[in-house]
Each structure stands twice: as structure tokens, then as C-alpha cells.
Amino acid sequence: MLPRVSRTFALGIRLLPRTLEDPITIGYLLCRIADTIEDDRSLAPERKLALLNQFAACFTSVEAADRYADDAGGAGMSAADRELVDGSPLVFRAYRALDPASRGIIREWVSEMSTGMQEFVRMYPDGIRIQSLAEFRRYCYFVAGTVGHLLTDLWHAHSPFIRSRTYAKLLGTCENFGEALQTVNILKDIPWDVERENAVFIPRDLLESAGSSQAALLDPALRPNNRTALQTLVSLAEADLDCALEYVSEIPPAAMRIRLFCVLPTVFAAATLRELKHSEQMLVPGGGVKITRSEVNALILAGTTTTLSNTTLRWLMERVRSRPFVFVGQS
To answer: What is the DSSP letter of 283?
Structure first.
């Protein structure tokens, strides 16, 4: 199921040590189920809240897990996401087969994510409209900072190289690691969120300060104003990416496969943010910003060769932030 709902994440999973593959896969799929429920525009807010409440109960009740997918919506889901939600009982069955430490970590952080999603469904029953930078950061914590904690706790539980001292350092930047990736995703997918999800994550106060509004976010006449409004979030993403690099650098080289798992999304995000700075496609109806397949492939190869050294890792990040990273002969 994983490659169908996230090809990029599925690629990363295969890089991990065997002891981490199942916990990370199952944790991700559970996060994705909750996110799919939250995003389904066909579900009434009351139904979303009920489903998210039932979802939390599935961690402790086999009966609730076995019947979770019954009438869980679906009109607003992709075929793959619909299949994933229908398969929720199988995912929870796999969850129950994990070791106790993994179960506890996944339950804690996926439940925290679900609680935050419920908060925003209550606040915005007709579609999310983030009001301030503080609210934006709170939203990113619930949907991505929690993932940073989930991963870090699983590293500590399963890797002999992530000992208490390293774990304590990672806790200082693990939220930034997750939130950096989330902010970049929000910036590159503005048209999708507005047109497909009925969600505006760009804070109202930033847009109004720039002479625009959430209703005019994709208005060609106000594109310069909207680009100005995005600068605060671009700067936030830059700062969080600095912390993400610090996070990866604290992972010991002996835990090379965990480092590589974290390096790839970090450099992908840095490359995407670079493109965002020189593009308007994230403000064009039907648009969006992506890095080229050639650069993705080059970064995968470069990531595998720079992972062991913090010096070469920092060089790669600075290089990616300045211009596209492709090899000679690539187009």
C-alpha cells in the first residue's frame, strides 16, 4: 500500500535498518489514514470529528479497529487513499503485532496528531483558513512536528547508535525537521489546497498586510502582493531547514541508514524552496512547484555519498540552495 500513497516515502523506508521498516511503515500509514479523513471534503465536520475520535479508540480496542473503515466516507478521497482507509483494520492488526515500545510511541504521537486535527476541524468546519503565523506554526506542529517526535523516539528505541545523549540533542530540533518539510509542502501546493481541499494555510494577517486576502490568493492581479505575503513563510522554512540540517548532523555516522532516510527529504525540500523563490507557479490556478526528476535522481545519488560526513552534507545543502543539482549530461 505504501508506494501507492507515497512513492517518495516508500523509497525512504527501504533505506532503513530492518528493525525500523515495520514501525515506520505502520506509523506513516496510520498518520496518512488520519490525514485522509481530515482532508475529505465530502465528509461533514461532525462526521470527521466522530471518525477521528473512533480512530483514536482503535489503538486500544480491537473491536473498534476491526470495524473502523465502515462508512468512513470516500467521495473526496483518491482511489489509493480510499483503499488505505478501507484497509485500516489490516494496518491496526499490523500495529498490534509490533513490539510494545513501538506501539507506545506510535500511539502517543499519532494520537497527538489526531487531537490537533480535531481542533482545526472544530475551528474551521467549512474549510481551514489559517489566521496568523502563530496558528500556522501550531497547525504544522500537529501534522508534522509530531512526526519528527515519532521518528526520533523510534530511532532511540531501535538503533544502538541513538543513545540517550544523542536522543536528547535530537529532541531539540526534531519538530523543526518535520515542520520544515511541511512548510515547503504547503508553499509548493497552494493551488491544490485552495482548489481541491478548500483549505488556505497562508495566514490571513500576512496576506492582508501585503494588500491581499485569502479569497484573492490565486488572483493574477494581486500576484505581487501574494508573493510578498509568502516571504515570511519562506524565511520560516529556511530557518527550520537550518535546524533540520542540525538534526541530521547529530545522527551518528554509524547510523548511516537513518541519516540517509532523513537527508533525502531535507535536500529535496531545500531544492524545492530554492525553486519557490524564483517561481510564481505556486500562485497560479492549477499550478504548483516541483523539482525536476533529473535533480531528484542526482540528489539521491549525492545523498548516499555525502551522508557519512557532516562537512560534505553541509556542502550539499549549500549547493542545493544556490542552484539546481544535476550531473553533467543531465537535462
So the answer is: G
Question: From the CA atom positions of the chain, what is the Rg in Å?
Answer: 20
219-244 mean pLDDT: 98
> Does the global pTM surpass 0.85?
yes
CA 11/CA 330 separation, integer angstroms: 22
Q: How far is CA 188 from CA 19, 24, 250, 275, in A?
A: 34, 25, 28, 9
Domains, the chain, with CATH or none: 1-99 (no CATH), 128-331 (1.10.600.10)
pLDDT tens, 38-73? Answer: 988 888 999 999 999 999 999 999 999 998 877 666
- CA nearest 121: which of 202, 51, 191? 51
pLDDT tens digits, one per residue of 81-102: 889 999 999 999 999 999 999 9
Instruction: Tell me how crowded residue 164 is: count the other CB atoms within 10 A of its CB.
Output: 8
Residue 185 neighbours by CB distance under 10 Å: 18
Alpha helices, H only, 97-132: 100-123
Q: What does the DSSP 8-state code read for residue 143?
A: I
What grid cell was written down for 173? Answer: 530540533
Distance, C-alpha 79 to centroid of its chain: 20
Bridge partner residues of 129 (DSSP) = 200
